[in-house]
Please model this.
Amino acid sequence: MATDIKITTETHKFKYRVNGIVIKNGKLLTIKMKNGTSFCLPGGHAELGEDTHTAVIREMKEELNSEATISSELAIVESFYTDKNGLSTHEISFYYIVEPVNYDNIPLENYSTKENDKGEMKDHNFEWIELSNLENVDFRPAFIKTKLAKGDFTFEHMIIKE
Model:
């Protein structure tokens, strides 16, 4: 079984992630987070020995049940923050605009799926959010929300220290 790139100690955490941005008819495909009130993008950890292009395509297949192609890279973000458990977290995330190969497998209304992620069953509750309404939604991370809501699709490398 492949190993996700993440390290956790008693006080710190490191995550190496990829995220897929799917936009259709002016709407962004999001996942409702476990807290039930906020949203994020589909994606996950890159695996040891896996480049980020391969990782985001794999994650889209696992979560969306569709092959995808990469249209462009939106951002590389290095984030430093304290997580909900009080761990100092360093996360490197790659954000790709992706195009599903088969929209027949992706309902254009809100829907739910289950994923077997390395033996752990995960529920994914997908919701389409109008880009024009994104600023009014608790979407995370906030810096990607702002970029997408402004229609800014230029590549950017960001370092965020919270």
In short: The helical segments are 52-64, 142-149. The first strand starts at residue 6 and ends at 8. The mean pLDDT is 92.
